[in-house]
Amino acid sequence: MKKAMLLLLISITILQVSQAQDKPPFWDDVQTIKHYDQMYAPPANPILFVGSSSIRKWEDMERTFASYDVMNRGIGGAKVNDIIFYLNDIVFPYHPREIVLYVGENDIPDGATPDTVLERTKKLITGIRERLPETPITYISIKPSPSRDKYRQTVQDANSLIKEYLETQHKITWVDVFTPMLTKDGNSRPEIFQSDMLHLNKDGYKIWKELIQPTLIKK
């Protein structure tokens, strides 16, 4: 009897582990977002900020852009393909009047080349345009994080390719945060980052606000 119970417990554990491994990345994060939406109705036709942790960690975003009716749906650690995968969960249900994107930085330490980041970005824009062909998009360039200085040339090359591509697209505004986040000599500015030298502090987000706000559309 004890042996049978032990085998049953082992089988249940293996099944639970298998089910956890079958989940796509950030599945639980997205389910948390959807659960939150069930408890608190999202604003109608918001300006939707989407992307990785630089979006998610902008904790005072709603207050910063109080007159614009913005909504934060960032996912910490997300890569471009992750945002593509969850478009039906964190973009389309909100019927945004404008989308602000920041994603791609996490792809580069994972081995993505500038061409790879570009191709993934093209797929992301195409995926959005299939459902929202006329929705304005603000695309934030990849930032120069001090903790990732060794990837700076890759970041610059990816930014150049993406900017060139977006200039051929309809209703997309490119926002360069890379240059303003460096010194005049082209050095990193650790004072605008948190201690991890990856995520922005309030001074870093102040720079972003000044660059992004002119692209936002009021109702």
Automatic annotation (TrEMBL):
Signal sequence extent: 1-20
The keyword ATP-binding is annotated on this UniProt entry: no
Superkingdom, natural source: Bacteria
InterPro entries: Ester_Hydrolysis_Enzymes, SGNH_hydro, SGNH_hydro_sf
Protein name: GDSL family lipase
Keywords on record: Signal
SGNH hydrolase-type esterase domain sequence ranges: 58-207
Organism: Chitinophaga silvisoli
Gene Ontology MF term list: phosphatidylcholine lysophospholipase activity
